[in-house]
Amino acid sequence: MSFYEKLMKLDRRWVYLTVAIAVVIPVLVPFKVPVYVTPEAKAVYDFVENTQPGEIIFLAIDYDPNAMAELQPMARVIMRQVFSRNIRLIICALSQNGPGMAEQLISQISKEYNKKNGVDYVYLGYKPYPGITILAMGQNFRIPFPTDYYNTPVDSLPMMDGLRNYDDVKGIISIEAGNVAEYWINYANGRYKAKVFFGVTGVMTADYYPFLQSGQLSGLLGGLKGASEYERLAKQEGVATEGMSIQTVAHLVVIAFIVLGNVGYFMSKRYKGKEKG
Amino acid sequence: MITDLSSAIWTTLAAFLTFCIFSFLYKDNPFYKIAEHIVVGVSAGYFAVLLYWDGLVPKLWDPIVKQGKWYYLIPGLLGLIMWTRFSKKYSWISRFSISFYMGIATGVAVPLYIQNYVIRQLSSTMLPVHFKNPAGFFNLLIVIGVLCALIYFFFSKEHKGAMGSAAKVGIWTLMVGFGAGFGLTVMGRVSLLIDRVIFLKNYFASVFGHIL
After folding, report:
1. Which residues contact B124 (CB under 8 A, 6 or more apart)?
2. Which of A202, A216, A254 sits opposite B184 (nearest CB)?
3. A62 near A98, Cβ under 8 Å?
4. Which of A22, A81, A246, B53 would suit a FRET pair with A88, their CA atoms being 20 to 30 Å apart?
């Protein structure tokens, strides 16, 4: 068996081990890599920066704990920027396993900035059937959410005074890990013409660029890279920035394996052809 | 990370389950199976409770029992007859609910999907092509890419000659799209690994930090 044939039959566990080592080393020996900020990420940042204190932004935390790694850094840095600028937030969580996780994040960040529930932010929580919920919120937030996450009637919350639907918020920043994203485009933007910004997982990013180009989305953060861009813009280096150096090393290893696999494939094919000839 | 006994227990359990899941990379084993079953069980249980308290109680029970809105029994009944799906003899009854749901979903979604996923996307590919700045050139790429990808999916004429060349450009355009998708997927999966490794680093630092 030639070297290249052996390469083709390499046990995949060696690949896992190499990637694991490539990830662990930069964690133990940290270093920094430059982060290039894309215009679509800057659009989200500028939107928050240009919102005046006291105005309201709608934040949708529509992901489950399995997408926390990529999306929690985005949600965290956006909430910190919003609260530091005294902008008010109305928040929902339309992914079925996410409301508890979202609540933990909200209470942690609101404590950091001394923000009060019902005054500086309202957490509406979860309702099933995200499409119908988003559509109903376009008429009135009170239709799907007569009470907030903590079971308080929303009409008793001072912040909800005069706040009816998407017309009363500056825009929607939706952090997404599933098909809820398409409802925000279709219903919130398509039906109610709300300004929508997305923060999505890496897997989803390529799917949403066409909507950015068509103007249906006003800004886009893609995966951990998007979160690191935002952290850089907001000057709040966190997990995403720390992750970029590790990501770089891991990507180099993956590229090396792709090159090695292709070399092995073509060379073993050539070797076989020579043996037959 | 670890501030008290409770957080110590839960964080240790999380670290243990992380190792259980990663052990699958070596080979399938009972530890992986336990962790997998816990994830499925917890997710299903959490969702069931959430649906009960955020769906059934406020949307059906409270309106009927507390507010006396008896007409809510009609959607309640439509929901109830969905369970006849489990009976061979009576499963036809569930078609009433399904047709009602399909009717609403179609009426709400179809016009908006055509508008937002077809017409808006089509109009955003009708772009001015010029060479005054890079944007004009990129517009040309978009127009060529869209046309050639559409030609690739046109099966009424054999892909030969000019048609074949355009279809080939179409395939290349699709491949670029798949490549971008794959690259971003790799980035996403590596991000999940990074998160777990950082979690484990912080865990070990908080447990053994005072010893090391």
Report:
1. A210, A213, A214, A215
2. A202
3. yes
4. B53
Residue-wise pLDDT for B49-58, tens only, equals 989 998 899 8
CA distances from residue B175 to A33, A146, B161 in whole angstroms, order as listed? 29, 48, 21
Prediction ipTM score: 0.87
pTM of the shown model: 0.90
Judging by beta carbons within 10 Å of its beta carbon (0-12, 13-18, 19+), is residue B59 exposed, middle or buried?
middle
As given in the structure block, the two tokens for residue B106 are 């179609």
Best residue in B42, B193, B203, B208 to probe A by mutation, most A CBs within 10 Å?
B193
A91–chain B nearest CA distance, Å: 16
* Closest residue in chain B to residue A249, using alpha carbons only: B190
Contacts of A117 (CB under 8 A, 6+ apart): A110, A123, A150, A157
Kindly report the nearest CA distance between residue B88 and chain A, in angstroms: 28
In this complex, is the C-beta atom of B58 within 8 Å of any C-beta atom belonging to chain A? yes
